[in-house]
Amino acid sequence: MDFSEGGHWHYAMVEPNGQEYWGRMDYQTIRPIDNYTSLDGFCDDTGKLNPDLPRSKWNVTFSDLAAHTLVETVVSYTSSEAIQQVINMGLKEGLTSTLERLDELLLVLDQE
Fold first, then answer.
1. Quick one: which H or E segment has residue 71?
2. Of 9, 65, 4, 64, which is closest to residue 36 (Cα–Cα)?
3. Ranges for the Activator of Hsp90 ATPase homologue 1/2-like C-terminal domain (predicted)?
4. Quick check: 69 and 81 in contact, CB under 8 A?
5. DSSP state of 37
6. How far apart are CA 39 and CA 57, in angstroms?
7. How far apart are CA 35 and CA 80, in angstroms?
8. Can you give the pLDDT at residue 109?
9. Which residues of the chain have pLDDT under 50?
10. Residue 53 lies in a domain
């Protein structure tokens, strides 16, 4: 992971049965503390993007709420067909699982 403008994150999503799905997020802009934007897409285990699968644009913003931070993530696709394709591939379930695990992690960190 190279969290810098022009850098990227190459990652694997792994199912409980061991099946791997690879992704690559390319960071476009980074404004420390405030915001970052990126392009996310499916790739192979070497990081080569799959041109047959849609990429999404991410805009992640952090807002100071005194004792807390609000994180807003807007993910957009180029067409309704593109978003339907990733929904059919399990986007909803995968994102739900990720956010539930993040909630659990934040609760543990809050108790420390």
1. strand 68-76
2. 4
3. 1-106
4. no
5. E
6. 5
7. 26
8. 80
9. none
10. yes
Question: Would you give the distance in Å from CA 15 to the centre of its chain?
Answer: 17
Domain that holds residue 71: 8-111
Q: Structural domain tally of the chain?
A: 1
| CATH number of the domain to which 23 belongs | 3.30.530.20
The whole model's pTM is what?
A: 0.84
3 in a domain, yes or no?
A: no
Q: What is the spatial distance between Cα 75 and Cα 57, in angstroms, rounded to a whole number?
A: 6
Both tokens of 49, joined, read 């993007």
Q: Confirm whether 95 is domain-assigned.
A: yes
Residue among 71, 50, 108, 17 nearest 40 (CA): 50
Residue 76 lies in a domain: yes
Two tokens, residue 66: 């005194």
pLDDT more than 70, % of the chain: 100
